Amino acid sequence: MRFDIITIFPKIFDSYLHESILKRAQAKKKITITTHDLRDFSKLKHRKVDDSPFGGGPGMVLMAEPIFRAVEFARRKSQSAKRKKVILFSTRGKKFDAKMAKRLSRYDQLILICGRYEGVDERVAEHIADEEISIGNYVLSGGELPAMVLVEAISRFIPGVLGKYESLEEVKGSYPVYTRPEVFVPGRDKKYEVRSKKRRNTRTSYLLHLTSRNEWRVPKVLLSGHAKRIEEWRMQKRS
Fold first, then answer.
1. pLDDT at residue 24, rounded to an integer
2. pTM of this prediction?
3. Which of 20, 39, 177, 198 is deepest in the core (most CB within 10 A)?
C-alpha cells in the first residue's frame, strides 16, 4: 500500500508518521508514505497555489492546476499500482468509518488531497478526486489531520502492520482491559511519605484509613484463570 499526501504543510506529518506502528510498518515495507509539497507544483511567482474566489467572499481558495500536477506526479511515481484512488477531504464528503477503512485498504495506492484556507477549487472534486471524505461533523483548518487518521485506520487492515490479525478491535471487539497492579491506590506513595514524616501526628490514622478505602481493583473474574468465564465477561462488556 502506498499513500501519497498532497499538502502545503508537509512537515506537519514528520513526527506522527515516523513513530510507533506506522514507523515499523514502513520499515517492514508494508506501507509507503510520501508527502508532496503542493507549492512544488506551482508555476506562479513565489510558488503561489491559492487565489481569491470568483464571485467574491472571504478567504483564499486552493487552485486546481497545481493539485492536478501533484496528483499526476503521484500517479507516475507508482506505475505498478493497479488499484488507485484519489481522495479529497471535504466537509461535504462521506463520513469515514471502519467499513470504509477496510474497503480502502484493498487499494494499491491512495492519493490524499489536503485542503486549506477557504477551500479547494470545486473542479478538483468534479474532475480529479474519485471520492470526497469527511472524518466527522466538525470543521478543521485543513486536511492534514484527516489524512493522518485515514493512514492509520487503513494501515491497521493491511496484513503484517499490527503483527496479529486478532489485535484488530473490529475482530476482537472493544471491551475493558486491565494490567498490573491488581490493586492501585491513587496517590499512595505520597501518602506513605507524609505518614513517615508525621508518624506521631494524629493525621497518620486518617491517611491510612483513606488509603485502604480508595482502592481501584481489577475485576475478580480476570484473575480467576477461568478462560470461559473471562470470555463471557468480555462478551457482556463488548461494544
1. 95
2. 0.81
3. 39
